[in-house]
Design a protein that fits this description.
single chain; about 260 residues; alpha+beta; seven-stranded mixed sheet; about 45% helix; globular
């Protein structure tokens, strides 16, 4: 009986350690991934990692404007869902089966000095750089399916007085994309789709055509590159399962009571 209780306690401790580590890794990955793609700071209200399923639910992600802007928040994402390939990530290859983004509000701001918050985004900065300048390489990533929902876009212009001129656009966008292999393309898609149904691009001199060209090119290349991904992912899962089973057996055989 004493041996049985000891085994149960050990298993319980192992599970707790794994769950804690899993949540910490997920939170760090989300924060660093978003900060890399945008160049801006963010805050997450809640994050839940599935115990028996490879999924992450994120609540209340807010992307903040850089210093010098009257409004603090640029993007409000109340709901994010991610289903990922854990064995692939453990090996250093980020493979996400599904991402669902619900963007409640996208706030574009022109401050009193005439600066636009969108210019601080890396994807926008890249469009304004000379073609011969080196660009930061995005992390290798495979996103099988991306669902994007955008409710509202707001434009605030503080350049003409203390009280901003405000324009609101209920864009109500819901679109799906497949086979994305560039993390920066996700942010480009969000910016392009959020602004296409508004007059904001003209008011802020954002090169939507350039961003849209980048998105189209990335999606085209990703579709061609995805061949064989499903079979490789299946093999990775099988190999990882076999490795975990063998390791668990060795650990239990080594226990002495």
């Amino acid at each position: 009986m004493k041996k049985f209780v000891t085994v149960i306690v050990i298993l319980f401790v192992v599970i707790l350690v794994l769950l804690f580590t899993k949540n910490m890794i997920a939170k760090i990955a989300v924060e660093r991934g978003v900060e890399f793609a945008t160049g801006l700071k963010l805050r997450i209200s809640g994050l839940k990692v599935g115990v028996f399923k490879s999924r992450i639910d994120i609540d209340g992600l807010k992307l903040y404007n850089p210093k010098g802007f009257e409004d603090k928040i640029m993007v409000d994402l109340p709901d994010i869902y991610v289903d990922y390939n854990l064995p692939s990530i453990i090996k250093g290859n980020v493979h996400l089966y599904d991402i669902k983004l619900h963007l409640k509000e996208f706030v574009v701001v022109k401050n009193k000095d005439g600066e636009v918050n969108l210019d601080s985004l890396k994807v926008v900065q890249a469009q304004k750089e000379a073609r011969d300048k080196p660009k930061a390489k995005a992390p290798d990533i495979q996103i099988d399916n991306l669902e994007l929902k955008i409710d509202r876009v707001i434009y605030k212009d503080y350049s003409k007085g203390a009280q901003p001129s405000v324009k609101e656009f209920n864009v109500n966008i819901y679109e799906k994309y497949t086979n994305i292999s560039n993390l920066n393309a996700v942010m480009s898609i969000i910016v392009v789709k959020a602004l296409t149904k508004t007059t904001i691009a003209g008011l802020t001199n954002i090169d939507l055509q350039g961003l849209n060209s980048t998105v189209t090119d990335t999606l085209s290349k990703s579709t061609k590159a995805v061949t064989g991904v499903a079979s490789k992912a299946t093999k990775s899962v099988g190999d990882a399962g076999k490795s975990i089973t063998e390791s668990a057996g060795k650990i239990m055989e080594g226990l002495k009571f």
